[in-house]
Amino acid sequence: MTKAVISVDLNTPANVAAKMMESAGVGSIIVTEKGKPIGIITERDFAIKMIAYAYPPHSKVTQIMSSPIIHAKPNTPILEVADLMARKRIRKLPIIDKELVGIITATDLLNIFTFCTEEDLKKMYYNFLTQIYDQTIPQ
Q1: Residue 11: how many CB atoms within 10 A of its CB?
Q2: Distances (CA, A) of 106 to 37, 78, 111, 130
Q3: I need a surface site. Which of 11, 19, 104, 135 has the fewest CB within 10 A?
């Protein structure tokens, strides 16, 4: 997870957010309202939504953000994070625990799984299945 995440207020113009992303060399920016994450804008949002709807560059970020924000908690197992990202077809997943903690990207997952041994993957898979089992069995 990357802890340094860029965020903007919901009233920020889209072109300002795009300049911030470019300056920081990141592919997404979190949109906040009173400091709380409410959406995310990715490079794809700029490429598709801005062009498809012919929004002017000074449009508010709320016009192109994805919301509600799909996120995970800091203690979410990595396999569950990977599964959520695959199911929702997203490449960037904010980590939120009352406030924004960080972001996990598809590249982060690739880097993690590249260095895993077969035994590591088996342990992650077992832990993931155990959680699913524990959630489905009444206590």
Answers
A1: 10
A2: 20, 12, 9, 24
A3: 135
Distance CA 50, CA 57 (A): 8
Give me Rg for the CA atoms of the chain.
Answer: 17
H or E element, residue 105:
strand 99-105
Tokens coding 65: 């953000």
Region of 116 please: left (phi>0), alpha (psi -120 to 50) or beta: beta
**CA distance to 42, 61, 72, 92, per residue, from 48 (Å):** 10, 14, 25, 17
Packing angle between helix 78-88 and helix 118-136, nearest 10 degrees? 80
pLDDT tens digit at each of 139 positions of the chain: 888 899 999 999 999 999 999 999 999 999 999 989 999 999 999 988 888 888 999 999 999 999 999 999 999 988 889 889 988 989 999 999 988 999 999 989 888 878 878 887 787 777 777 767 676 666 5
Contacts 24+ apart (CB under 8 A), 127-130: 127/77, 127/79, 128/77, 128/79, 128/80, 128/83
The alpha-helical segments, DSSP class H, found in the chain are 14-24, 43-45, 51-52, 78-88, 106-114, 118-136
